Structure formats: C-alpha cells, structure tokens
Amino acid sequence: MIYFDNSATTVVDASVLDTYIQTTKRIIGNPSSLHFLGTQADRLLQQARGQIAELLNVEDKEIYFTSGGTEGNNWVIKGTAIEKHPFGKHIIISDVEHSAVGKAAAQLETLGFEISRAPVDQKGRIKVDALAALIRPETILVSTMLVNNEVGAIQPIKEIGKVLESYPNIHFHVDAVQGLGKLPLQNWLTARVDFATFSSHKFHGPKGVGFVFWRRGRKLAPLLNGGGQEFGGRSGTENVPGITAMSKAVRLQLTDEEAKCHQQRQLQTYLIEALKTFDNVSLFTEPTDEYAPHIVCFGINGIKGEVLVHAFEEKNILISTTSACSSRSHVTGSTLHAMGVPGDIGTTAVRVSFSSHSTMSELEQFLVSFRHIYEKFSKVSR
Amino acid sequence: MLEYSEIMIRYGELSTKGKNIKLFIQQLAKNIRSALQAHPKVKIHGQKDRMYLILNGEPSQIIIEKLRPIFGIQTFSPVVKVDKQLEKIYQAAAELVASEYVPGQSFKVNAKRADRAFELDTIGLNREVGHAVICAIPEIEVKMKQPDIELRVEIRHDAAYLSVATIKGAGGLPVGSSGKGMLMLSGGIDSPVAGYLAMKRGVEIEAVHFYSPPYTSEQALNKAKELTVKLTPYVGSIQFITVPFTEIQEAIKENVPSGYLMTITRRFMMRLTDLIREKRGGLAIINGESLGQVASQTLESMTAINEVTTTPVIRPVITMDKLEIIDLAEKIDTFDLAVLPFEDCCTIFAPPQPKTKPKLEKVLEYEKRLDVDDLIQRAFDGMVFEKIQTGDYFLTSGQQEFEDLL
C-alpha cells in the first residue's frame, strides 16, 4: 500500500503512539484532582505545553489545547465574535478557506455578522490588496489559512500581517493546520499573528487533539464553559495522553525540518516534472516556494477526480480528491473554482500529499501505476 | 561577542559604611564566591571602593547573569583587558562601543592613566580613542554631559582596561551582613516578598513553615519549599524548617472560643519561631504582615500576638498595598506559585468571625486552658530541617520525570 493522502491525515509515528499508550497506562489522574495522581498529570500537561511553546518560541500560557483543527478554527472565529461584537460585526476570510472556517463564519451571518471573502489569484494565493480594501472600521477579525489544503499554495501571511499593523484592534487568525513542519515558523508566525490553529493528526500525532496559539493580551471568549481548564479558555478534562503524544509529535515534526521539507520538495518536483510529460494532464501546483512541499494537485482531462481516486485505489495507492472532508459531497473544488479554473477541469482534480515518511521508490511505483491508468483512460475516452 | 576578562563591581551604599566596611566587603565576596561555585577559576579582589572579579577564562555572560540578583552590588561593568598598544586599544574601543550602540546615541571617552610613562596622557587618550570610535561609527554623536555611552579606558601598569556597559545590580546590602532572621513563610503572596526585602537589607533568612497534616496537604508544604527555591538565587541556599503544628491547632480549636482561635494560633507560631530563632542564633523574626489586610493584621491583633516576645519583628511589607506586594511578587517570580489553591494552616481553622480587636487579658485567660510549654516543646522537638538550593524542585517536576514520554 502506498499512502499519499497525508493532507487528510498521517500515520501516527510509532514512538508517538508509544507515548500515548504509556501515558494512558501510567498517568491516570485528572489534572484537576488535588491528590498526587492529579498533580502528576498536571505536571505532565504543563511540561507538554512548555515543550510546544518552546518549539514555537512563544510563552507557555499562549498554548491552549483543543480537540483539533475544526475546534480551533470555530473557537477563534466564534470566540472573537462573542468577545468583540460590541466593536463591530464584520469578519474577513478568504475564498479558499477550509469549511471549518468558512462554515463557522457562515453561521455567524445568521446572527447578523457580515462576512467578506478575499479573492485569490490564479495560483490560489490571497490578493493582499483586495483583502486590505475589504477592511472597515467595524472589522473585528481576519482569518486566513497558511497552506491551502487543496493545491498547497502558501498564503502571504507576512504581507497580510503588514497590512494589519495599521489596524491593531483586528484579530488576525491563521489556520495553520496544513503548515506545521512544512515551512519555517519564522516565515509566518510574526508578532502580528494573534491566533493560530494546529491539529495533531496532520503531523503524525493522534487524532482528536490539537492546539491554538493565542497571543497574550488578546481576548477570546470560550466556547466550552465548565471547569475552567486551559486557563479558563477551554473547559473539559484534558486529553492528557493525546496532548502528551502531540507534544512529542510536534518535537519530532520540527526536528530536521529543513531536511524533511527538502526531501518532500524533491518528491513533489519529480512528480510534477513527470506529469508534465503527459498531454492530457492539468497541473494546479508548482514546485516552488509559493507552494508547500508536500502537496501536488492535478487532474486528467475528462476524468472525474473521484474516478481517478478509485482507479488508484485498485492499485493499492491512496490519494484524494481535493479535500477529504468534502470529497463525499459533490461541490466544485472550492479553491480551484476560486482560482478561476473552469468547472469541467476543476472536477478532474486529485491531490497527492506526502509526509516525511514518503519515499522515492513509492513515487516510482505511483508513476508506473499512473501510466497504466492514463493509457487505459486515454483509450476509453477516445 | 567580546569576551570580558574582568568585572568591576561598585558597592553603592556600602561605600558609606565607616569602619565596618571590611566586614561588609568580606560578606559580599563570600556571597559572590558561593553564587559562582561552578566557576572556581574566578578570582575575587575586594578593595575598599570597588571589587574586581578576574575571570581567568570563565564565561563572562553566565557570570554577569549570576551577579544580577546579588545584594550589595550597586552596578557592575564588564572589562576588556588589552595590551598597552594604541592600535589594540583603538580596536577594542570601537568594538566595545559598537556592541552597545543604538542609532541616535551619544558617547564620550573617560580615560585614566596610572602608568605615567604611557605615550599618551589622558587628554590625548580621550581625543585619540574618541577619534577611533568615530571612525568606526561615523554617525555617533559626542556629548560630554550625560552621554548615552561612557567608554572608560584605564591604562594600568600591566595592561589597558576598557569598559563600556554599566549594569545595574540588585542594590541593598550583602545578605548576612545584617545578621540572621527567621522568616515565617506561609505559602501566600506576602511572606516570600517579606523574605526578599529582608535579604535586600542584608538579613540572612531561614524559612519557618508550620505544617498541619491532614488539614493541610503535602502540596501546601511543597509549595512553601518551592517558594523558598525562588528566594535562593540571592543567597545560594536557604535552611527550611518544617514545624509540626497539627496538635497545637487541634488543642486550640478544642479549648478556645472561635473568636480567639486566630490570635492564639498566631501567638503559638510566634513563640515557636522565637524559640527556633534563639536556638539557631538569629536576631529577628520576619513576617509578611501588611497593616489592616486581615483580622490578624490590625494593630490590636499585632499587639496581642507580639506580646509573646521582645525580639524585633521585622514586617517589610507592613505599609504596602496588596497591589504593590503583588508587583514585587511578580518581579521575584513567586506570584504564580503563591496563588496555587492549596489550604494552608492559616485558612484551615479560620473562624467565621475572628476578633479584629482581641483583648490581651482574654487571650491570656484562654491560653491558661492549654499546656502551652508542653505543646511548644513537642512541636519544637518534631522540627525537620532541609537545606533548599537553587535548582531544587518540589511542586514542578524536573526535566527527567517525563523525559521518556515527551
């Protein structure tokens, strides 16, 4: 089996899984309990937090644990809305956001919030000038993704941050779910970024756990009220094994980051160059610094993406239509649509996504299968 | 980064001490020696007006950090030693000023010459070294009065010494130069601040903590120890004394009307602390009382409590507002620990309505119901001593505890 669907989820690293199991067995207390099992669990929780904070070069109290990317995105968007609605009810997102951002914002529209969606260029990158033009006195939040989950475009976070320097009251949230370990943190996590969302299972950690970076001094209402865990920001008994395992996964993901990115970039370049030799292939990703190194989006003209996914599946190769979360719903690939790709070409798109575990020999096998599939479909569609 | 070869320390307030100054300087040298235990090659020369640390290759940046919290140091300056050749002096001067310079700043050169045979006199040195700096940083401004950067150049017989940065020290008096006192350390916000301030005025402290299991938890005890750890950078290590207090609290609770529980409990604590002080050769008792903050901290209560001893009771935060105390607690990094929600012995038997104006004659009458000497003696016999050092941990865990998981 060749697993090239790492933007959907990744395989849990063996040592991370071991941490999960060991923590579940050994650290049984609730971190809020007063007895020694409780304080032991709390110490581990705080160390896990400290490790992530140190790796991100932020303060311990700026890391808040969540159940994953969807919760993180919903929290920052709705929490900002609850906290800041007396100051304005206008929110800016982009045209290419993940539905955890897009639909969270859409829900706020029913409560009288106005949502503006910044357009992207042909490469899927947000047009910063167009976004700047959308800012109004009542804008309370700008939320954009870091790495597009469909085509891999890296968004101009630094440039957007520069624009927002003139608007210090606007919250700036970055959905970084696809980005950890795929580009250097200092390329985007600037002092103007107020919030960032991360999800463990995208970087070889367990599912059901994630974290939000929440810059000290910013205000955000909790969505989950209760026992006051996570400094009052996110109640609910902490997922200690998940959090501990995630903390280790963050460490591993950022170890030798440069070499691992380089390796994935090589695979990406190799695949794209190979695909370019086929006449009927449309490519939506380029192997440049404007794109993350782990994603390749392409299509065979005339063949629906879903059909291509199943054709590869028959050969024991797992890839995806443009976003696993929406691949069962028959919507036009939203990023491609926003990029101006015509509908009939957009529906052909599939996504290959690598991780640091992916190898060149897997890619060679993939290309052998691709040739077979391509030739077969060429005959059928002739 | 320039490596410094010496650090020059200025005493500030110490310099005004008359004939006792020698003792103060000896104490400061001893404290610095203990803070620099890990750097045995450093030589300390205490002179009447200044102290010189000769680093002998020990890392200057680490030593600078370790000097910052030491009381008795007003300011200090890292010094670069170079050969007495003009070219080398110019180069070091330019490098030193550049390491401190921020665009828009001004400087001046302050040269001294002990070696009268040196080729330039002080006026010449000021001019020529200044010229070398301006060549290296053309946009720098020269200002004789209150420059941003003052470059000191000293030509001694063996070499030339240059320094530029003046780092603010912790001020105060060397810990130990004012004798020893017993700090009543509860685990709240105020008492660690009181301990810090007493140390700042030269008092060596030992921490006395009253422990009442099972009414107070082991975490509360560990919290007090952890707070003590936070006070160790100023001295190196602190003696922590745990006094078993359960029996006394139970006896008081059983025999004394609830309005007087607090007053009499405090009197017991004061008696025990005073007894320990006597045995440990201390001269004072230090506590974190702040006037009017709680029932035990009214002047009437203090009168009733203080009646058990004539030993000086130092109350460093007595006139501070809570917010002022919190500011200091944050500065010395004890606040986050102090607010951890563990029961301590002050809260556990807290009556709903303690007397804010207890009457001494009633106090004495109620105390007759208790075998005071016997209770005190048993608590005293059960004392546990523990030396607490920088780097110890009690509540927080060391790196090792979960190393395999993370």
From TrEMBL, chain A:
GO terms for molecular function: iron-sulfur cluster binding; metal ion binding; transaminase activity. Gene3D superfamilies: 1.10.260.50, Aspartate Aminotransferase, domain 1, Type I PLP-dependent aspartate aminotransferase-like (Major domain). Its cofactor is pyridoxal 5'-phosphate. Signal peptide: none annotated. Residues 2-366 form the Aminotransferase class V domain. It comes from the Bacteria. Keywords: Aminotransferase, Iron, Iron-sulfur, Metal-binding, Pyridoxal phosphate, Transferase. Pfam families: Aminotran_5. PANTHER family: CYSTEINE DESULFURASE ISCS 2-RELATED, CYSTEINE DESULFURYLASE FAMILY MEMBER. Belongs to the class-V pyridoxal-phosphate-dependent aminotransferase family. NifS/IscS subfamily. This is Aminotransferase. It comes from Vagococcus elongatus.
